[in-house]
Amino acid sequence: MYNEIDLDKIDLSSNPPSEEPARQYYFMAKCREMVRNFKQRHDRFPTACVQTFGCQMNARDSEKMVGILESVGYRMTESEEADFVLYNTCTVRENANNKVYGRLGTLHNYKKKNPHMMIVLCGCMMQEESVVQKLRESYRFVDLIFGTHNIYKFAELIVRAQEADSMLVEIWQETDKIVEDLPVERKYFFKSGVNIMFGCNNFCSYCIVPYVRGRERSREPGEIIREIEKLAADGVVEVMLLGQNVNSYGKNLKEPMSFAELLQKIEQVEGIERIRFMTSHPKDLSDELIEVMRRSSKICKHMHLPLQSGSDRILKIMNRHYDKAHYLRLVEKLRAAVPDISITTDIIVGFPGETEEDFLETLDVVQKVRYDSAFTFLYSKRTGTPAAAMEEQVLESVAKERFDRLLKEVQKIAAKQAETYTGQTLPVLVEQVNTQDGSLVSGRLSNNSIVHFPGNADMVGTFVDVTLEECKGFYYMGRKVDRETTSAH
Ligand code: SAH
Ligand code: SF4
Ligand code: F3S
Predict the structure, then answer these.
(1) Does the C-beta of 200 come closer than 6 Å to ligand 2?
(2) Which residue is closest in CA terms to ligand 1's atom 19?
(3) Could you say which ligand is closest to the alpha carbon of residue 348?
(4) Cα of 90 from ligand 3 centre, angstroms
(5) Distance between CA atoms of 93 and 206, rounded to whole angstroms?
(6) Would you say 27 and 35 are in contact if contact means Cβ atoms under 8 Å apart?
(7) Separation of alpha carbons 143 and 128, rounded Å
(8) I need a surface site. Which of 38, 127, 177, 199 has the fewest CB within 10 A?
(9) Under DSSP, is residue 365 helix (H, G, I), strand (E, B) or coil?
(10) Which residues, including other chains, have CB under 8 Å from residue 397's CB and lie 6 or more apart?
(11) What is the Cα–Cα distance from 113 to 135, expressed in whole angstroms?
(12) Are the CB atoms for 16 and 23 separated by under 8 Å?
């Protein structure tokens, strides 16, 4: 088992092995040697801070990088005044990029005080040529830049950057490689994300993800199950299966397998009580999956089903491959199969050419579906995507006005939806002691809603039956009931 490899036993006088992951373990041993030298010189271990922007894929990638940093001896800290600071970036919307540039200025000041400081940038934003060019020109103090395809080489890149005397940039355009068995440090001991696929082949016309994350690649089911079994043995009770379009899982495997089939295998893993997944693309959501959800006692009663727009005309230009009627039919089938299922979504407002009529179609879907929650986004032009070149970009003031109207409607409906659960007693997986009030703990229902109730730290990671006493719009205040929990639903 690679996780049990003793880094101190690796012979650093020989050349690094060429096969993976053995090569990365060799470089981790080298990093550990560097960390020990630091300790000798400074009489303390070096500190490291990892900041994650963007989606759950990035969050999972960060856990992998933290796993490597911890295994070589860095002490993790929340403070950016650290010896090693890494930003794992997102570029899905313009404001995600701006945040990074804004914060780099502060990091530069820290580095002036601590010249040994290492500043590292990785993730989706780094896959854009214009970004790297800008960093090379105006942010020379950054030590290491790499992208989404060579994250598994993290240890090797740190060693090379330490040895280099100027900024090291290594960006790959694509990869077909999936390296298994590197260390991971989970943020929570009782739940974990699990990548089931990487990349995206859908090329929705507004979206940068396929360009920065590369082509769709599914992990072998055996590897996924092995990872989940290990997680379960380690105390994990909830897994979140991650992919940009989980419904097309397995299509490119040597022995193709559907997502529904994979779910059935995962259900059999003992110790796993809750299974979540994201994201589902409506064009590939199969009846087979709905049936598996209907029969399952472990798959959570939650479906995140991005709508993007309710207008058939816009959906076509977005390259989404479904229409309003198809979407509404899916929702109907889901609700028939899984009563009480929570349905959430993503919506973009102000896509090029969107008219008031198109927008009203979106509002109509919102009113018909009655989402339990919805992420609403103002369209953001991403250079290199087909939509960026479309002529009729919507005026910002018009888009903003529609956005406000949509948000109001979404919030009104979500609050009413949540209210319907008040009074029910349901199992909550407790996630943490409440950060604002230490006498409360906070957790989630199967449908992903947040519940706060009086409790203590011992409850973290366990299922507790809670009566939902009061609905506060986006969350509930509850009270523990005294009986044994029998199911995670
Ligand atoms: N793979 C997922 C979405 C990943 S990106 C899916 O297909 O559903 C998360 C969300 O960001 C998208 O659902 C979309 O609503 C939003 N988004 C993506 N590109 C955007 C853009 N250019 N402007 C505004 N929002 C965007
Ligand atoms: Fe982007 Fe579409 Fe792929 Fe989602 S499915 S990541 S929105 S291209
Ligand atoms: Fe952002 Fe990359 Fe995720 S662009 S949304 S971090 S896949």
Answers:
(1) yes
(2) 207
(3) 1
(4) 5
(5) 10
(6) no
(7) 18
(8) 177
(9) helix
(10) none
(11) 21
(12) yes
Whether the CB of 213 sits within 6 Å of ligand 2:
no
Q: Is 244 in the pocket of ligand 2 (CB under 6 A)?
A: yes
**Does 352 contact ligand 1 (Cβ within 6 A)?**
no
Whether the CB of 386 sits within 6 Å of ligand 2: no
Whose alpha carbon is nearest atom 3 of ligand 3?
Answer: 55
Q: Which amino acid is at 446?
A: S
Task: Report residue 175: phi and psi, to 5°.
Answer: -150, 150
- φ, ψ dihedrals at 4, nearest 5°: -100, 10
Give, in degrees to the nearest 5, the angle at Cα 120 between 52 and 35. Answer: 105
Neighbours of 458 (CB within 10 A): 9
Q: Is 377 in the pocket of ligand 1 (CB under 6 A)?
A: yes
Per-run averaged pLDDT (10 residues), the chain, 489 residues: 74 92 95 96 97 95 95 97 98 92 94 95 97 96 96 96 93 86 89 96 97 95 97 97 96 95 98 97 97 97 98 98 98 97 98 98 98 97 95 94 98 95 97 96 97 97 97 94 70
Using DSSP's 3-state secondary structure scheme, residue 147 falls into coil
Ligand 2 mean position, distance from CA 482 (Å): 45
Q: Which amino acid residue places its CA nearest to atom 1 of ligand 3? A: 90
**Ligand 2 atom 4: the closest Cα is on which residue?**
244
